[in-house]
Amino acid sequence: MGDRLRLAVGVMGNAASLLLYAAPILTFARVLRKKDTEGFSCIPYIIALLNCLLYTWYGLPVVSCRWENFPVVTINGLGTLLEFSFILIYFWFASARDKMKVAAILIPVVLVFGVTAVISGFLFHDHHHRKVFVGSVALVASVAMYGSPLVVVKQVIQTKSVEFMPFYLSFFSLIASSLWMAYGLLSHDLFLASPNLVGSPLAILQLVLYCKYKGIIKEPNKKWDLEQNEDKSKQLQLVINNNDANGKS
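RE: above sequence
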């Protein structure tokens, strides 16, 4: 009964995480349409890529015992493909400065995963120590992934706009983190349960901010409008003066 319940929670966690990983598709569809990243940050997607890579490795039989964490492998493997696609699209349309930022973060992320995989595969010779080592690194990456939306949260508070913090991204983050926390507890695996103790409260924070700012329409800068009107008035007066001068001559 316990194994069936754990598997059922894992399947539901897969479904919720799939919706979570797929939520940015609308944002990147707009990037493709406008051929512009419009200044939003790529950091959350890079951190999510590291998290997916590490937990895919964690769930494979090399680290875990046989296929005890098969649901973890399937969703994080798919998440790796999606996050890599998002990063590739962002990199293609980003400015030269933003491309440098992406490369500066992405290269160390790939190196961290590579070093973790090599050390766990060759220096440790039993599943327990491999799980402890990979799980510890993945725990840090997962907490960073759930914390990375704080970059967007700061932007939301400053601009009072939820344009780059979609509701469904925050909603599915809450559902997915809650389900994976339950899965980790049922599996007696703190490396799966612990990160979601951070993810759930942060997702709730994002939903609260969304509800607060979703109805606010940014007003145009009145000072700028006054300056534009003043310039137009001066131009109109200049045209009238020129016409008067031409008429007199």
